[in-house]
């Protein structure tokens, strides 16, 4: 039943079954995520900090995935944006008494600008060279944070003592931070859901799969990568602002470190690159495992990342959600072919 | 008929090697121009030069507008659609998504893009496989997908790079009929092709390349009887 | 800080540490040149070498320069096993799977070291190695001189292996054109395993000769990996002589930058050079990389 190119077209449009559409809604699942974390607040009131770090990590990884997964430009430098966000809040609060919400906007703008320049410089590099360049740039920024003591407090760090309160909310309260983090995670998921279902999202996929073919579809790969990087960086920096307030004591070591960049990237890759919920699943899995083995591994919890990434690369190269989605796609096609 | 594409003195150098040497050509709306020649004659390179994938000297005009300094994507946006000799589906995506991507170029939003994509898939007879992962398609269907992708940008000039190669006789016949119907609808088509049946049936005009140079130009019948052409093919055969 | 003597002092210091960088980088470069694999666990193998030297010194009182004879073969074996069990399964898959798997491997190694040895820095105290000798007004630490000597011997050995032996010819053929090498009967999977083994042997040897010089910290591996990348990109990914030049250059750049500009940015100078080379001359400073024919 091969229907050839010159078979009569439009012969019986009325008899055609409804065309399957790609525009299935992600909103019910997003609502489920929101409900699950809201339940966390009431069920585990003693584990709010854990919830906050989980949601921030998931948010960063989801934001990373815009560039690393959907657009296929894996970065090992995203800690730079976390650090940039945290330090922007800290520096502006200490020196100019700037309100944290203005600092957040400033941080996002600065991150976007940095991403634009960074991309301009490195998007010409391919594959491993791009990855290496992201490490190098993030390392240089870390060294700047350590050495420019007047601004950042150097290796000793910077403390956030005092912040203006939005609507009278104490930002240093774990309760407030929990809801802000949930809001942040949902914001990132909504942005990624909207972007990836639209024009830019498909352009990103095209650039990831094959740049020459993307050009033949009228897509400017550099522009698409730049947009993905800018969005990814701004969203990561916003989460960095929250993290800065959460930590209150900012030091270059954990904030700008290669290890944080690696964690963000691996969480997304383990969960499934280029899937909306993969990074969240990866973050949840890693956090759960780290909690289970907390006493055994103590501070060596990156061991879990190492083991999981090796297993995922060997046995589930698309990541957990990636393999699941692949299966769903195959099953849906089988169903549509039968029906 | 308005002039759709015009190229003058197109030259491509790879290091010391001259892959294409001063080739000129012209193509009118609704016409089909064939580009033939032995392996390594520079046909695909000329294609890549015209569509912007390799650096070239010379002039290329699209409906009177100079495009030779534009990036490939900008030429696509003006209306130069192309297929690749080795099909390049977006492997990780479904058939529909593959066509959705070029369809977005002229669509106002996702819903319209999906309509355009389905229209292109229906034209090539792949609509019933819309949800299949593109990596699962066989060669003939990948070829059709390649064509659907090129059509989804709604081009005015279509570059077909060995679209017929490897097709079995019935599929070849179908494809020839389809390309003819595209030209009849006003599309200008330029095709690199090894399958002589397709060339003689479709092309009013043929350009023969050998060692990067244009050695003959005319109707398929005239060109195939040209002494230099025969020599080029025989000479190329024992390489 | 003016005058010739401090300059020569910095130069010699840079060259000596640069020799070790070269030793680390040359393994990474060799592996990339032959297998097209970027080994993100390279620095962790250096740390493995350092801790092996420390264990042998503390438990058996073995001089680290003697434990080279154990560490290098151990590295070779471990490298072969890792290549056969993990990397061989991924080497033909396009994309970043080998990069990720070696990154994961590095995390596993550094965190296991952390679990076994704890976070506090460890070192070896060798009385004779802490001495310095004066040569034409330049102070040269003995441990660094020995390190330089060992590096010279190892790299010369590698060079002879690659250029003077049948095996070396097979390795170079595999690097230049894997398919062609297979067509003339070279067992390229075996070559890959050997090359990965040799790369890891060099990395662990570098760790051993670093043990008397620097403190060992389980998590320091990543920074050695980074140094190795810088070295190989400076010299051209895949080029063995390039890695030597790149290593020496990196050592000198760091020393000079630290003493004439700002010591806080010591690690940044190499990274700047790295970025500049990556962006302006991705084939490296020293000639051509091994390219497919």
Summarize the structure.
The complex is a heterotrimer of chains A (339), B (239) and C (293). Chain B has helices at residues 43-51, 72-78, 95-103, 110-124, 139-152, 169-184, 196-202, 220-224, 227-237, and strands at 3-14, 17-28, 32-36, 57-62, 65-66, 80-82, 157-161, 188-192, 205-210, 213-218.
Describe the structure.
Chain A is mostly helical and 339 residues long. Chain A has a domain at 22-37 and 44-161 and 168-257. Chain A is built from 16 helices and 2 strands. Chain A is globular. Mean pLDDT of chain A is 87; it is low at 1-17. Chain B has helices at 43-51, 72-78, 95-103, 110-124, 139-152, 169-184, 196-202, 220-224, 227-237; strands spanning 3-14, 17-28, 32-36, 57-62, 65-66, 80-82, 157-161, 188-192, 205-210, 213-218. In chain B, 39% of the residues lie in helices and 26% in strands. Chain B has 239 residues and is an alpha/beta fold. Chain C is an all-alpha fold and 293 residues long. Chain C has a single domain (4-280), classed as ABC transporter involved in vitamin B12 uptake, BtuC (Orthogonal Bundle), CATH 1.10.3470. Helix content of chain C is 71%, strand content 3%. Chain C is built from 11 helices and 2 strands, in the order ααααββααααααα. Chain C has helices spanning 4-35, 42-60, 64-85, 97-117, 142-164, 166-176, 178-183, 188-210, 221-235, 240-260, 266-280; strands at 132-135, 138-141. Chain C starts with a helix and ends in a 13-residue tail after the last helix. The chains are: A mainly alpha (339), B alpha/beta (239), C mainly alpha (293). Chains A and B meet through α8, α9 and α16 of A and α2, α3, α4, α5 and α6 of B.
How are the SSEs ordered, and which strands pair?
The complex is a heterotrimer of chains A (339), B (239) and C (293).
Chain A: H1 27-43, H2 48-70, H3 79-96, H4 100-122, H5 128-147, H6 149-152, E1 158-159, H7 174-197, H8 199-209, H9 211-216, H10 221-247, E2 249-250, H11 252-256, H12 258-271, H13 278-292, H14 294-297, H15 302-315, H16 320-338
Antiparallel strand pairs in A: 1-2
Chain B: E1 3-14, E2 17-28, E3 32-36, H1 43-51, E4 57-62, E5 65-66, H2 72-78, E6 80-82, H3 95-103, H4 110-124, H5 139-152, E7 157-161, H6 169-184, E8 188-192, H7 196-202, E9 205-210, E10 213-218, H8 220-224, H9 227-237
Parallel strand pairs in B: 3-8, 3-9, 6-7, 7-8
Antiparallel strand pairs in B: 1-2, 1-4, 4-5, 9-10
Helix pairs in contact in B: 3-4, 3-5, 4-5
Chain C: H1 4-35, H2 42-60, H3 64-85, H4 97-117, E1 132-135, E2 138-141, H5 142-164, H6 166-176, H7 178-183, H8 188-210, H9 221-235, H10 240-260, H11 266-280
Antiparallel strand pairs in C: 1-2
Helix pairs in contact in C: 1-5, 1-8, 1-9, 1-10, 2-3, 2-4, 2-8, 2-9, 3-8, 5-6, 5-8, 6-8, 9-10, 9-11, 10-11
